[in-house]
Design goal:
Layout (H helix, E strand, L loop, with lengths): L5 E2 H15 L6 H15 L4 H13 L8 H8 L2 H8 L7 H15 L5 H36 L4 H7 L22 H19 L1 H10 L7 H15 L2 H4 L2 H7 L6 E2 L4 H13 L8 H15 L4 H13 L9 H5 L6 H8 L1 H9 L3 H10 L22 H15 L11 H13 L5 H11 L16 H11 L4 H8 L3 H15 L4 H10 L7
Antiparallel strand pairs: 1-2
């Protein structure tokens, strides 16, 4: 593996492609908004530090967007379609938001009859605010924490915590108003909205909408600037929004990641991906650990073990191209959903091909669903086209997935999962040596139980935290533990206070980071 430091912007820019997928925008949307945001900042003659904050805010604005996506999906179905519509809307316009929720509810119940549609629409309208407020607040909290873990500094972490704030004080999570909102947040919010509105409606209609939100969603000075100088600010924007060009825009001095810190960056990617549903929490970390341990069991060189650890952490990044509603479905999968799923390893590779230190891990990660007999995807590679590390990653992913519950099936016991993997090896789909190495790694005493940091949590609070990781509501949690909802809420608020979070998503991320999800 490379011993050279890596530019932090390379990792962040690649991660921005994944956030594009997660919010239903075209690839390179965040890159484009970075270019536009920097142009706006330069037109305002902002300081180098303010430009640096704009740069990373544009690329990372939606790094927390995966948190608790299953809650949004339960309400609106295909959350990507919903997010594309919401991106064009004024979030403080209750009538507009109710209309979008009603439209989403109609999509969810398509073909189920009038009564089902009316019930779904009423439910969406009743629950919309109750679901969206904690979910959006969780996005902010998770984004801030992931930025801290990428060592981007307190200012950028703070800015990401202001993700949905508005000039008029009607935003989230803190209702900040006017100049209390960071300049970078104000610039990027307007830049991204301007791109979405322009591409959806054309520049003339976009200007009307920006003007109508002037002094409401947007800083009046910024709105006036983009309305007056839009032609100049947007000139050649599509051509300028390449990965190379955006990397060239990063203000000096550049931020770097030491070679030994690259695993931490990959772990950020893993947690970002896995936060979308309760049943994927910690999945990528577990696959990574299994694969790296199996490589050592096989006597592979340290290079291969490191490569497998990183590939395991990032292997599911491409799953963000698929609506969470597909993963949450308890019934049989539709053909078109299956075709989408078969492409997700391609998107993993596509996103991570750019950063040179991750290119080799990306190529390996793109093979995690390949099978020796050619029945896998997305390439349909077979036999000698699959290296032993690729076979190990495939076996590790298969084993870990089998011992995790999914909406359409229960989890297998470790013994049953081992039997299933050996069956696949006998039938020529998985490599027998890789299977035995993964099972040996899985059977190591103490595996997947890192030293937990409890931050003073009581045993009951840890139990409550693990129930939160399972996606339990307060009422469900109380029922499972045999306590009243009020007592359950007291435990939740106490653990929030102790670990320094204010949302379920923040608590779940803490649990993953500190190894407290075991038994969840």
């Amino acid at each position: 593996m490379t011993a050279e430091p890596v530019r932090r912007a390379e990792i962040v820019a690649a991660l921005s492609l994944a956030t594009d997928l997660a919010i239903g925008q075209p690839l390179e949307f965040a890159l484009k908004s970075c270019v536009l945001g920097m142009r706006i900042g330069e037109a305002l003659d902002l300081s180098p530090e303010e430009l640096r904050q704009i740069y990373f805010q544009a690329l990372l604005r939606y790094i927390g967007c995966n948190a608790d996506t299953y809650l949004l999906s339960a309400l609106v179905g295909d959350e990507m379609a919903f997010r594309r519509e919401v991106a064009r809307a004024d979030l403080a316009d209750d009538l507009e938001m109710l209309t979008l929720l009603a439209r989403a509810a109609r999509r969810v119940t398509e073909g189920e009859g009038l009564v089902a549609m009316v019930v779904a629409v009423l439910r969406a309208m009743a629950m919309g605010r109750a679901v969206s407020t904690p979910v959006l607040s969780g996005h902010c909290e998770v984004a801030s924490r992931l930025a801290e873990r990428l060592s981007l500094g307190s200012a950028i972490a703070r800015n990401l915590g202001q993700l949905y704030e508005r000039w008029d004080g009607k935003g989230l999570p803190s209702g900040l108003r006017g100049e209390a909102i960071s300049p970078a947040v104000r610039v990027v919010s307007l830049a991204q909205d301007a791109i979405v509105l322009r591409e959806a409606y054309g520049w003339e209609d976009a200007c009307r909408q920006i003007g109508s939100r002037r002094g409401k969603a947007y800083d009046p000075r910024l709105a006036d600037l983009i309305l007056a100088r839009g032609d100049d600010l947007f000139r050649g924007l599509d051509m300028a929004a390449t990965m190379e060009a955006v990397l060239g825009l990063e203000p000096e001095p550049h931020a770097w990641i030491a070679a030994e810190e690259l695993d931490q960056a990959c772990t950020v990617i893993a947690d970002f991906v896995d936060m979308r549903t309760p049943f994927t929490i910690g999945h990528s970390r577990a696959v990574s650990e299994l694969a790296a341990a199996a490589a050592r069991h096989c006597g592979l060189p340290p290079h291969d073990s490191t490569l497998l650890r990183r590939a395991g952490l990032v292997h599911d990044l491409g799953e963000l191209s698929i609506p969470t509603s597909v993963w949450m479905s308890p019934g049989p999968m539709r053909h078109r959903d299956g075709e989408q799923i078969r492409l997700h390893p391609y998107f993993t590779e596509r996103i991570l091909t750019g950063p040179a230190p991750l290119a080799e891990a990306a190529a390996l990660a793109g093979r995690h669903h390949e099978r020796l007999d050619g029945s896998g995807y997305f390439r349909g590679a077979r036999g000698q086209a699959l290296s032993l590390p690729a076979s190990i990653l495939a076996a590790a992913e298969a084993y870990q997935t089998k011992i995790e519950a999914r909406p359409h099936r229960a989890s297998l016991s470790p013994g049953a999962a081992a039997q299933a993997l050996r069956g696949e090896a006998r039938e020529g789909r998985l490599d027998g040596r890789a299977v035995e190495a993964v099972l040996a790694a899985a059977g190591r005493p103490g595996r997947a139980t890192p030293r937990a940091r409890t931050d003073g949590l009581t045993a009951r609070e840890i139990e409550v935290l693990r129930h939160l990781c399972q996606g339990k509501t307060l009422r469900q949690l109380a029922g499972d533990l045999g306590i009243s909802p009020k007592t359950a809420d007291n435990h939740v608020q106490s653990l929030y206070s102790k670990v320094g979070v204010s949302t379920r998503a923040g608590a779940v991320l803490f649990a993953v980071e500190q190894g407290l999800t075991a038994g969840a």
